[in-house]
Write a structure and sequence with these properties.
The radius of gyration is 16 Å and the shape is elongated. Strand 2 and strand 3 form a beta hairpin. It has 164 residues and is α+β, with helices and mostly antiparallel strands. Helices cover 36% and strands 24% of the residues. It is built from 4 helices and 7 strands. The protein has one domain. Strands 1, 2, 3, 4, 5, 6 and 7 form a 7-stranded antiparallel sheet that branches.
């Protein structure tokens, strides 16, 4: 299989089904979950240099507060906190065979089962549980409030929109 075919297989056979199980809706390569006052959002971003033989990608993950600018479905452009998957992972998961500082890497001939097994750990043990624990705006401020730039942005959005 080419790297692109492996990625498409992963999205169709693992990512979409697991996110659906967790209650996420999808549009293209963006998944969001309505949490009442805000959305949690996961966006798969492919890099421009990709080819069918080599695919690099990352996940933009965060929260988007419900504001008038979100009509039907939130997008990555609506995120009030916008972090890559590495934020949600412990140090020992930040770099391994399929992951480096800029995200995930696939090349032709990669064992798709091994890749899926590794990324399952990232999502099911770290990313999705972290997002599931966000139930209120206070949870969001508690979890992201101390992050440089994003914490200040988050607190400003909460204050400017009278969110509690």
């Amino acid at each position: 299989m080419t790297a692109k075919e492996i990625q498409l297989y992963f999205i169709k056979n693992y990512l979409k089904p697991i996110l659906k199980t967790y209650g996420y809706k999808t549009l293209g390569q963006t998944w969001w979950k309505d949490k009442g006052e805000f959305y949690t959002l996961i966006n798969l971003q492919n890099y421009s240099w990709n080819s069918k033989n080599s695919v690099d990608f990352c996940f933009n993950i965060g929260i988007a507060f419900k504001k008038e600018s979100i009509i039907k479905s939130p997008s990555v452009h609506n995120l009030d906190v916008y972090l890559r998957e590495g934020f949600y992972l412990p140090n020992q998961r930040k770099e391994y065979l399929y992951r480096n500082k800029s995200g995930y890497t696939l090349t032709n001939g990669v064992n798709k089962e091994n890749f899926e097994s590794e990324i399952k750990i990232d999502f099911e043990k770290y990313i999705l549980p972290y997002l599931e624990n966000l139930k209120t705006i206070k949870d969001c401020v508690d979890c992201f409030g101390q992050i440089p730039f994003w914490g200040e942005n988050l607190k400003k959005v909460v204050a400017d929109n009278n969110l509690q």
